[in-house]
From TrEMBL:
UniProt keywords, alphabetically: 2Fe-2S, Iron, Iron-sulfur, Metal-binding, Nitrate assimilation, Oxidoreductase
Protein family membership: Belongs to the bacterial ring-hydroxylating dioxygenase ferredoxin component family.
InterPro entries: Rieske-like_NirD (IPR012748), Rieske_2Fe-2S (IPR017941), Rieske_2Fe-2S_sf (IPR036922)
Domain Rieske: 10-111
Cofactor: [2Fe-2S] cluster
Organism ancestry: Bacteria, Pseudomonadati, Spirochaetota, Spirochaetia, Leptospirales
GO molecular function: 2 iron, 2 sulfur cluster binding; metal ion binding; nitrite reductase [NAD(P)H] activity
SUPFAM superfamilies, alphabetized: ISP domain
Presence of keyword Hydrolase: no
Coiled-coil residue spans: none
Protein's name in the database: Nitrite reductase small subunit NirD
Pfam family, one: Rieske_2
Key word Metal-binding present: yes
UniProt-listed GO biological process terms: nitrate assimilation
Length: 114
């Protein structure tokens, strides 16, 4: 039996609310979510803000970049790097973060949550 998941679109701000080539934390339905704007790539990503290694709410302040073309964020505390496409930890298979779809429409930024 196939399970269908319905996603709800939540407005989290405008494009101008987020730093160029950086991240910011938003709260949606009681969850802290890190939203990243890769301006040079014209791409947006979102993941849970908590680092699974420590539980600290700090991924929005992490360093963003890419590893072999894959966008990533690196936890500023423990240096664990997470793919912003899959959520997998790129330097430790034990950890992962949940990722969320981001939509930008008419200058507004939305995150889709189940």
């Amino acid at each position: 039996m196939e399970t269908t998941v319905t996603l709800t679109k939540h407005r989290v701000g405008t494009v101008e609310d987020f730093p160029v080539e950086g991240g910011a934390c938003v709260r949606v339905d009681g969850r802290q979510i890190a939203v990243f704007h890769f301006t040079s790539r014209q791409e947006w990503y979102a993941c849970e803000n908590a680092c699974p290694h420590s539980g600290s709410m700090l991924l929005a302040r992490g360093l963003i970049g890419d590893q072999k073309g894959e966008p990533k964020v690196t936890c500023p505390m423990h240096k664990k790097s997470f793919s912003l496409q899959s959520g997998q930890c790129l330097n430790d298979d034990e950890y992962s973060v949940r990722t969320y779809p981001v939509i930008v429409e008419n200058g507004n930024v939305y995150i889709e949550l189940a």
